[in-house]
Amino acid sequence: MDQFKEIESFVTVAQLGSFVQAADKLGLSKAMVSRHVSDLEARLGVRLMQRTTRRLSLSEAGADYLQRCVQILAELQEANATVSASAVQAQGLLKITAPLTFGIRHLAPLWGEFLRVHPRVELEVNLNDRLVDLIEEGYDLAVRIGQLTSSTLIARRIAGTRLVLCASPRYLQQAAPIRALDDIVQHAVIGYTYLATGEQWRFSGPQGARSIEVRPRLRSNSGDTCRAAALADQGVIFQPTFLVGEDLQAGRLVQILPQYAGPELDINVVYPSRLHLSHKVRAMVEFLATAFAQAGRG
What we know:
Layout: H1 3-16, H2 19-26, H3 30-44, E1 49-51, E2 56-58, H4 60-84, E3 92-98, H5 100-117, E4 121-127, H6 134-137, E5 141-145, E6 154-167, H7 169-174, E7 190-192, E8 200-205, E9 208-213, E10 218-220, H8 223-231, E11 237-240, H9 241-250, E12 254-255, E13 264-271, H10 279-295
Helix pairs in contact: 1-2, 1-3, 1-4, 2-3
């Protein structure tokens, strides 16, 4: 049995969570895919997957092996694609999901140029700040900001951003002075619902890592709403530079305690696997990486 076929079957089953779906994707019978995985386990002498009638899960060894196999197959796919990319044109429907504010401000201006360069591609762009399951909901790729949680996704960093503590000049003039991080908890705070650390705001400062627990007067799942409230003199926000950078430069917002830096967040393009990566997905990944490198967005 071809060990690459065994590995390919194992990776596909692990990523889709189903032997039936993996068989459909690979164009094989369910029995053949199951045999590939069983032969691989026999070859390795270890159980990679726990199978029951209701669910399928990776063993500890299987989870570690999956990451290595994804990389091996990705490098093979990359080598093949490098040779054949010039002969095949990107085409078909490309479904993308991205965060709402970032998608409007930094991605929307790029779509026209991509479609001009790739006239045979159709785009469907969904902007949503919730964490979308790419495979379950049928997306080809996503733009995500912050720490990635799925080991089965391939990520390419295209830019970075940093969380900044800020408020409007008028608010700061009218409110009590802010001389230390602990002073923030006495102020009107505007919280972002999807912040990974919740209502714990984390910083690195002169004495190392610090955090404060805030109790927002206003909470929203929209960064734009948080920004608008701050511009309306309603309180202190902790938002990324891609959203408030222009306001800081124009003086509409003022950074508070600049000696305390908020976390730096990666902006990534993510997709399920480089295995069987379509030309349309590859074209978009390369396009976004080049566009952000040239423009210094984020």
